[in-house]
Amino acid sequence: MNLTKQFQTGITLIEIMIVLAIMVILMTLAVPSFQNGLDRAHINNAAEKIFNDIVYARSEAIKQNTTVRFQLGATNNSATTTTWCYGLEEAPDGTNDCDCSDYYPTEAANVYCKIDGIDKTNTVDNHTSITLSATTDGTASAYAQATFNEFGKRETLNTLLITLSYSGNTRQIEINPVGRIKLIE
């Protein structure tokens, strides 16, 4: 009689079920965190785009030795809105100003929202579902602007605060009276 035991190699169905149950529990914990990260990335992308365009407007004012305006507009005349746009304009003359809200949502670009002949408008279509609000010295407005002179300073002595919101996340951009632009988390 042979008394040696034979061992089987491989895994059992119970072992597979335990591993799958652990994986499901870990995925349940990870997915909400992943979605929050995506939401933060979405709002950060929009805030950084607006911030970079404002910095560009200021630098163009200095480079071209002229005034450049950042013009923010709500396409529904609301101080807090998810339908917004903005444009950059060099040497604004006060009569034919960049107002992207007149042209949104049609495809025609505002001929006055240009720097060096290049269209400089951006709409909510590029940043869906982001709510934007602007305040000037604490007063909410559907339209806001920051005009930089040839020295990169603001032409008006007020603080413009732009607030972006999305899924419980907020980012702010502040432009102070001397033209300093700051991205606030």
Can you describe this structure in just a few lines?
With 185 residues, this protein is α+β, with helices and mostly antiparallel strands.
Biggest sheet overview: 6 strands, antiparallel
Beta-strand content: 25-35%
Reading off the top of the CATH hierarchy, the class is best stated as Alpha Beta
CATH superfamily heading: minor pseudopilin epsh domain
Order of helices and strands: HEEEEEEEEEEEE
The total of beta strands comes to: 12
What is the CA-CA span between the terminal residues?
A: 78 Å
The number of helical elements comes to 1
| Shape category | elongated
Radius of gyration: 26 Å
Secondary-structure content class:
alpha+beta
* pLDDT < 50 stretches: none
CATH topology: minor pseudopilin epsh fold
CATH architecture: 3-Layer(bab) Sandwich
Give the % helix: 25-40%
- Average pLDDT over all residues: 81
Number of domains: 1
